Amino acid sequence: MDKFVIEGPTPLKGTIPISGSKNAALPLMATAILGDSPTTITNVPKLRDVYTFNNVIRVTGTHVDFNEEEATLTIDPKHLSHLEAPYELVRKMRASFYMLGALVGKFGQAKVSLPGGCAWGPRPVDLHLDGMREMGVDIELDQGYVIASAPKQMKGGTFKLEPSSVGATINLVLASVLRAEEFTIKNAAREPDAVLLCETLSEMGANIEGIGTDTLTIRGVDSLSGIEVRNASDRIETGTFMIAAAMHPESDVTITNADVDDLGHFPETFRKTGVDMTIEDSTIHIKAPDTINPTSIKTKVYPGFPTDLQAQWSTMMTQAEGSCSVTDTIYDDRFSYVPEVTRLGADMDVEQNTVHIKGKTPLKGASVMSTDLRASVSLVLAGMVAKGTTDVLRIYHLDRGYEDLEQKLRNVGANIKRVDQDA
What we know:
Layout: E1 2-8, E2 13-17, H1 22-32, E3 39-42, H2 48-59, E4 63-67, E5 72-76, E6 84-85, H3 87-90, H4 98-107, E7 109-113, H5 126-135, E8 138-142, E9 145-149, E10 154-160, H6 166-176, E11 180-186, H7 192-204, E12 207-209, E13 215-219, E14 228-230, H8 235-246, E15 252-256, H9 266-271, E16 276-280, E17 283-287, E18 297-298, H10 310-317, E19 323-327, H11 337-343, E20 347-351, E21 354-358, E22 367-369, H12 373-385, E23 388-393, H13 396-401, H14 405-411, E24 415-420
Parallel strand pairs: 2-15, 3-14, 6-7, 10-11, 18-19, 22-23
Antiparallel strand pairs: 1-23, 1-24, 3-5, 4-5, 7-9, 8-9, 11-13, 12-13, 15-17, 16-17, 19-21, 20-21
Helix pairs in contact: 1-2, 1-4, 1-7, 4-6, 5-6, 6-7, 10-12
């Protein structure tokens, strides 16, 4: 098992290219199963979750070819015959559960393990299952598996997501585009990942009305064709590096290959910190402020502040001149990073779904450990402004969602290296 060893504090200066989005790529991979011919996805990142989902798809008999050098993934469902996603793979990440919608949509049958993923918070799949039942899918649970069956054509109906859910929106769309006479999803997710999925399916021949709104109406079609589609750039990676660039007063960073329109309201919130930021097309240039303004936020569904950036934002606020609070309205208990950043010297206090932060506090290096992807990267950000040596343990979480993280940071001046944790 590896760890990061970080020597700080280090300003960041140079250019960071943004990789393809994990959260957008995985639904596109599931979408490819619905086609009658191969689909090629470009701008695909080399991440553990992508490799895992490749293997989940291969189990079904689907041919998967990942050209890592060209960041291109081709999926050919011609020989798909095994309608199961097994526990030993699905347990590794929640997005494997998209196989339920894809297999039900294509074949009307599926056996899919209940999912795993980051070890924080209850994220039940009830919305996925209830929506499919409303659509006309017969659902049974058997020893940790979802057993689903559906007729060739389902009448459909209307289902309201309460709360709105990206994962449930994606699964319900996948299940309905080939099989439901007419199915309407209310309070559907408007996140870029869900929008790209629907746009891609439309290009393949699906009939989806209301793309980009919170009401989607799907009318089933007889077949879909494979296409070539560009995966989005990772908006969470973009936001993470924007925050990293702001945390040291001498930093001057240019971020390239960003899908700026996918950032929602984040840039205008980010400006409130006092950062000097210019945006031109897919390039974001950031000069860190001499003093970070304390800026309270509340996470919201897109286009509001992303829950996947709240740990990074809270860490940045430890270096702001004054007090603020960060509230997560999406998940109540996504604060596993707080005790670890506190070990480095931060003054943070969690009260229900809010962390109260008093800054500015000098951070000093120590060994820290995290339990999920975004918590892990927040500890890396803290380590780069902490004085001395910080060891970030269990970085396999980072390998699930950040491509070449240490190399990208080294290229802009960070003193970070990957070593064997047990050496």
